[in-house]
């Protein structure tokens, strides 16, 4: 059916074109023979093709353009009075005898153009006449094209300032008046299309109307090009008249297009100065008009204007642009009760973008926009609409991007309030955005107060907000979140120890609300942050005078103890053990023996009671031994207790090889190289002998269970340890003992039942090489080693 | 010429938020043939990042590593050199050169790479060369005060290895290099 209609239209168009061509042919003949009468007759017939009602705008345009071309030739003929012998005044009268009104008016406009050019009458009179005469055609499509023709031919003949048509009584006011009138009439015709004739499908109608809109809009263009239209005239005459037309036509399509047109066509400088008038029209528009896009366009243009010409910025403040826009938006939102929440928020996003670009230093403005948003959101349940949520996230992200220093955003009092209205999931996303902004810009947050605000903002990550069941969270995502929080903790820093301690306490307060799932992530960074503070305080000697509650290592150690203790709720004994040992080392460096002892106790208790996995025990005991080996703060008694415990546990490890290694590691507890005092050669030897016994037992076990003795690696390791203490000058470790051990290993290796192990063979070989090397060194070392073969 | 990155003890996120920006801009994918990492990354994100720099990634376990499956020690051969890798918290006393030499003999390697102390070291002893790339993030260490972020790049070319150490000192990256040559039986070195 539709294709039939299109086919028909094609046919009619073809017919129309043929008619035009036919009459044009004769018209040209008449022109060539200077026959005015004939020319008029055929031109009128030609123009009659435009009387059709059967074409869509698109096709009608095609026809119109052909007629237009012909009229140009006719105009040239009219101009040349010698050719046709008729004065322009008479011509003007003559053409009015044409039979039908449409051809009559096209001809009249054409003659009118010549008339004005001849200057035999004031431009304004002719223009006024024409614009009123055109009222005779009330059919929307035909009328629009006719008036469009009028606009086209009159374009260069307006009595503008500096134009040749300006004169007494002919002023730019007249030009403006003419264009405004034409515009008003065209708009009326255009709107009338909505209600015309046969009932058409809404979409088709809208499409057709859209095809014609530029005809109407062109008038605004012309107005903007008129030189004489300065700011004052725009403000007093042009804008009010145009807006009057826009508001009164009460047509959604027209209003939207024309508002947009006004904004695009006239200079930004004018918009800035007429903000109130322009914005005043907005609430008067039809409720279905997409005002927010209009306002967004306006704000965008003004933002760009400000960005490109910074010298204009004071003007923005002078006209109170922000206040006006802000209240206009408020009015629009209030007037359009049915506007969905996403619409309101989009408006605020545009306003915020404007504010950030034009008045970035006015944090009060930024806060105001956020505040208006809060007001809009309050009283309602948390946002569920995902589009609205996206807009809120955009709203909150904008200040972060603009002020790369997060601290600025933290001072906006309404910022957290907006975040409160997000659903839990989005709240967390926003929190991550905030953290990423800090990490990217390498910002330091340097006071406890700001840290407090920050942690309030990201509370969705710090603890369970109401209503979030834990199982919903994806494990990977959860880890990522918590690791981000951990990294964030390192960005919280102040050189001043007092403030730093306050920061640490604030962070601690917050992470303690996180529950057992979060503590393993958040406690370690806090602990190390605190340990770094301890180290800094170490450097400072004596009491800090004048401070009532100075930050001291002791205080921090208390804090650390309580913090690490909380890991028992997880439970995370291995992590806690490591952290206790770190604290013990720090306490050692601060020379506080009881504190260091306490930390060791805690570590041992965890080892005894909580670390059950044998592999974990091996690592843990080596950490304990390694830490203890470096301790120099302990008195004899305490040290003895701890080393006794360490060696005891070493010997009780599950697997014999592990026992062996741990025990010979303990030998180092009794010999510390860089300090006088702990060089107990006897106990070193005792350890080494004990580990040798264990190695032997291991060999025998292997014999029994597997029918062959195991690798000699353990023996070679112990041999190396003997060499170590031998070199250090332990009198108990003699060259004879070493020789004996070497023999033992050689014997073991020659044992028939032994499975060959290239690794331990190579180890032994390189150990022997080392012995040789030392011998070759000569001097004291060489002498020492000489007896060993 | 084979480029090997030796790096470790990043302690992200326990002790440091991230690699220094200047290091990050230097470490680009496609330039390095192997990465050997002493451990204590500590999280998977860091593992993935290192893997993105170079697919041939070798890691040993540090005591804070999230992934418990990394081995305690590792050995690999690159060109003419045998390399050994171990975090170092297992070797008591920590940082003791002679004890590390024993581990080197035990693993039977020309170059031993180990960490834990967060202090860059490169020295030669009878059994070979020991290298400690330090901490790439300058993380807190109970053993070493004033840690500067550092990592090591080894250029292995038949019997010669040039060790470049990159250290971030007061915001500037400083580079130093040391030459080691391997002969049939032992390695000799010359420092620059």
TrEMBL record, chain A:
A single BP term in Gene Ontology: retrograde transport, endosome to Golgi
Coiled coil: none
Localization in the cell: Cytoplasm; Endosome membrane; Golgi apparatus, trans-Golgi network membrane; Prevacuolar compartment membrane
Membrane topology value: Peripheral membrane protein
Keyword Cytoplasm carried by entry: yes
Gene3D superfamilies documented for this protein: Vacuolar protein sorting-associated protein 35, helical subcomplex Vps35-C (1.25.40.660)
Keywords, comma-separated and alphabetical: Cytoplasm, Endosome, Golgi apparatus, Membrane, Protein transport, Transport
GO CC annotations, alphabetized: cytosol; endosome membrane; Golgi apparatus; late endosome; retromer, cargo-selective complex
InterPro entries reported in the protein's UniProt record: ARM-type_fold, Vps35, Vps35_C
Family note: Belongs to the VPS35 family.
The protein's name: Vacuolar protein sorting-associated protein 35
Organism: Escallonia herrerae
UniProtKB/TrEMBL annotation, chain B:
InterPro entries according to UniProt: Calcineurin-like_PHP_lpxH, Metallo-depent_PP-like, Phosphodiesterase_MJ0936/Vps29, Vps29
Residue ranges of domain Calcineurin-like phosphoesterase in the record: 4-157
Pfam families, alphabetized: Metallophos_2
Example of a GO biological process term: retrograde transport, endosome to Golgi
GO cellular component: cytoplasmic vesicle; cytosol; retromer complex
The keyword Magnesium is assigned to this record: no
SUPFAM superfamilies: Metallo-dependent phosphatases
Alphabetical keyword list: Protein transport, Transport
Similarity-based family: Belongs to the VPS29 family.
Record-given protein name: Vacuolar protein sorting-associated protein 29
Organism whose genome encodes this protein: Escallonia herrerae
């Amino acid at each position: 059916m539709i294709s039939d209609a299109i086919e028909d239209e094609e046919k009619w168009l073809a017919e129309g074109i043929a008619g035009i061509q036919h009459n044009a042919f004769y018209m040209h003949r008449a022109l060539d023979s200077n026959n005015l009468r004939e020319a008029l007759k055929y031109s009128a017939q030609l123009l009659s093709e435009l009387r059709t009602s059967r074409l869509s705008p698109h096709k009608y345009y095609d026809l119109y353009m052909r007629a237009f071309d012909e009229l140009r030739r006719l105009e040239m003929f009219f101009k040349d009075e010698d050719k046709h012998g008729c004065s322009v005044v008479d011509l003007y009268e003559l053409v009015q005898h044409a039979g039908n009104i449409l051809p009559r008016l096209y001809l009249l406009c054409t003659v009118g153009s010549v008339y004005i050019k001849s200057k035999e009458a004031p431009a304004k009179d002719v223009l006024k006449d024409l614009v009123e005469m055109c009222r005779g055609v009330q059919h929307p499509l035909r009328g629009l094209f006719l008036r469009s023709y009028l606009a086209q031919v009159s374009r260069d003949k307006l009595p503008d300032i500096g134009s040749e048509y300006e004169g007494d009584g002919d002023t730019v006011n007249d030009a403006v008046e003419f264009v405004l009138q034409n515009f008003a009439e065209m708009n009326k015709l255009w709107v009338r299309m909505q209600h015309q004739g046969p009932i058409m499908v809404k979409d088709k109608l809208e499409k057709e109307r859209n095809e014609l809109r530029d005809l109407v809009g062109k008038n605004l263009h012309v107005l903007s090009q008129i030189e004489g239209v300065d700011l004052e005239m725009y403000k007093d005459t042009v804008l009010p008249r145009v807006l009057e037309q826009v508001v009164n036509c009460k047509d959604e399509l027209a209003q939207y297009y024309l508002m947009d047109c006004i904004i695009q066509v006239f200079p930004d400088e004018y918009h800035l100065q007429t903000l109130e008038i322009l914005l005043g029209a907005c609430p008067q528009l039809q409720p279905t008009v997409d005002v927010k896009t209009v306002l967004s366009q306006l704000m965008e243009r003004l933002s760009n204007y400000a960005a490109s010409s910074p010298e204009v910025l004071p003007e923005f403040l002078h006209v109170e642009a922000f206040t006006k826009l802000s209240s206009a938006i408020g009015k629009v939102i209030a007037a359009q009760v049915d506007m969905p929440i996403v619409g309101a928020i989009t408006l605020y996003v545009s306003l915020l973008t404007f504010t950030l670009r034009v008045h970035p230093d006015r944090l009060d403005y930024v806060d105001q926009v956020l505040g208006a948003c809060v007001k809009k959101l309050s009283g309602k349940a948390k946002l569920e609409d995902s589009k609205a949520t996206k807009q809120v996230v955009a709203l909150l992200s904008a200040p972060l991007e603009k002020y790369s220093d997060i601290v600025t955003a933290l001072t906006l009092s309404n910022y957290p309030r907006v975040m409160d209205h997000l659903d839990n999931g989005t709240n967390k996303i926003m929190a991550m955005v905030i953290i990423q902004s800090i990490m990217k810009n390498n910002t330091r947050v340097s006071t406890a107060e700001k840290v407090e605000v920050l942690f309030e903002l990201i509370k969705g990550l710090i603890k369970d907000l109401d209503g979030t069941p834990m199982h919903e969270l994806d494990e990977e995502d959860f880890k990522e979140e918590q690791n981000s929080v951990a990294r964030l903790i390192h960005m919280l820093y102040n050189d001043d120890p007092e403030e730093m301690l306050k920061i640490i306490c604030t962070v601690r307060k917050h992470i303690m609300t996180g529950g057992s799932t979060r503590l393993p992530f958040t406690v370690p960074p806090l602990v190390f942050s605190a340990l770094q503070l301890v180290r800094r305080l170490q450097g400072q000697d004596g009491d800090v005078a004048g401070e009532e509650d100075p930050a001291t290592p002791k205080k921090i150690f208390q804090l650390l103890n309580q913090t690490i203790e909380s890991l028992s709720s997880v439970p995370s004994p291995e992590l806690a053990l490591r952290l206790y040992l770190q604290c013990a080392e720090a306490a050692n460096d601060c020379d506080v023996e009881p504190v260091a002892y306490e930390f060791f106790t805690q570590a041992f208790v965890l080892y005894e009671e909580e670390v059950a996995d044998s592999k974990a025990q091996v690592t843990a005991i080596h950490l304990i031994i390694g830490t203890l080996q470096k301790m120099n703060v302990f008195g004899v008694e305490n040290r003895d207790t701890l080393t006794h415990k360490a060696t005891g546990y070493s010997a009780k490890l599950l697997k014999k090889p592990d026992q062996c290694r741990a025990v010979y590691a303990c030998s180092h507890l009794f010999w510390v190289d860089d300090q006088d005092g702990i060089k107990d050669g006897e106990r070193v030897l005792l350890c080494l002998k004990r580990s040798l016994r264990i190695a032997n037992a291991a060999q025998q076990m292997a014999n029994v269970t597997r029918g062959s003795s195991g690798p000699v690696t353990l023996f070679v390791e112990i041999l190396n340890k003997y060499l170590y203490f031998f070199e250090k000058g332990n009198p108990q470790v003699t060259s004879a003992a070493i020789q004996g051990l070497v023999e033992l290993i050689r014997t073991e290796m020659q044992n028939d039942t032994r499975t060959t192990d290239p690794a331990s063979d190579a180890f032994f070989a390189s150990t022997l090489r080392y012995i040789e090397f030392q011998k070759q060194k000569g001097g004291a070392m060489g002498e020492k080693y000489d007896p060993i073969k | 010429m084979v480029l090997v990155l030796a790096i470790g003890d990043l302690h992200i996120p326990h002790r440091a938020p991230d690699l220094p920006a200047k290091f990050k801009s230097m470490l680009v994918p496609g330039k390095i043939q192997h990465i050997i990492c002493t451990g204590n990354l500590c999280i998977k994100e860091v593992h993935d990042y290192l893997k993105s720099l170079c697919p041939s990634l070798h890691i040993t376990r540090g005591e804070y590593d999230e992934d418990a499956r990394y081995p305690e020690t590792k050995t690999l051969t690159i060109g003419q050199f045998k390399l050994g890798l171990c975090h170092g918290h297992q070797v008591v006393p920590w940082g003791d050169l002679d004890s590390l030499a024993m581990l080197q003999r035990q693993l039977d390697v020309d170059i031993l790479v180990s960490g834990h102390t967060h202090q860059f070291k490169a020295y030669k002893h009878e059994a070979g060369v020991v290298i400690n790339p330090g901490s790439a993030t300058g993380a807190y260490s109970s053993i070493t005060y004033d840690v500067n972020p550092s990592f090591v790049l080894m250029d292995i070319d038949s019997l010669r290895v040039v060790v470049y150490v990159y250290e971030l000192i007061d915001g500037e990256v400083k580079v130093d290099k040391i030459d080691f040559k391997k002969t049939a039986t032992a390695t000799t070195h010359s420092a620059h």
